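Render this sequence as a predicted structure.
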Amino acid sequence: MNTLANSAAVAPPGRVRMLRKRYFPTPLQGVVSVVSAGLLLLISWKLLDWAFLSAVFGAEGSAAECRAAGGACWSVIANRWRIIFFGLYPHAEQWRSALACVAVVAMIVLSCVPSFWRPWRLAAVWIIGTAVYYILMKGGILGLRYVGEEQWGGLALTLFIFVATCLIGFPLSIVLALLRRSELPVISRGTGLLIDAVRSLPLLAILFAFAVVVPFMLPGWMQTGKLYRVVFGAGLFFAAYQAEIIRGGLQGVPRGQEEAAMALGIGYWHRVGKILLPQAMRNALPATINQFVIGFKETSLVIVVGFFEILASGNAAYGTGEWTFAYREVYAFIALIYFVFTYSLSRYGAYLERRMAISSR
């Protein structure tokens, strides 16, 4: 009894025992754990010293002061942030671009609130948000100076391309997924051929084709601005991938549910809208959120067709003048912006998964 009591007294706590079992099960793995922890601490210290301790902050920091310092030069952000956020947009009108960004972010946030998950409420939010953005960015009315799409740039253009791509691509993906499940072979195979053809091409090729090739194929009255053609091409690419995700979600719905609905005389649109699509969306939610994240990051590809989105604006921020050495800081700042948006999307997706898991019980 004394031996058992002594062993219980000297036994490590549960958490210590778990750490020992996970990281020090054998002497060799213990050495690997210690070396890895040391390298991680060393890298963390180097990053901390570079980003904060030895860095130069504020708009007062000059390029010469930054070159002499051993850390990051955040002064390039303080001095060139207008180019990063607004691109080629006229300096005197950049307040409009800032308000347009706020309008888009507010529209996205309101769309994520459950109390707005009603068809008319969502439609009102998107119509009002899109109208406010377009009026602010383009002007020409209400006393606002006209600014053409070729002068749009920075974060405002990135958000516009992302929102417009999703607004075009997501409804189109539902249509394509349903057409591919059609019982008519001509429709199902034709839709499948279209989806596979789009998915077989890289997004760069599609953007280039819609920006440069499509105008030669259309009559003058059907041609639109290059920005809108590029957005439609990106939306088509998004729809092709999302259609397959939704089709996979539809295949996860038990066949017996649709057959039971047909036996009860429920019409096609009620079967799809009330029974099949809600369950398919729940099944396809993780992949759908991932597709939205990919779509946001792929907005940077429009640089190849001449648009000044946030990454191109970042290149201009350090590529001219005296800040050519500070490219690391600019890319780190842009990466932080991308991280904020993509992380927010992923966290919202996790929230939806928890909410749907609770509601399905």
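Summary. The two ends are 50 Å apart (CA to CA). The longest helix spans residues 327-359.
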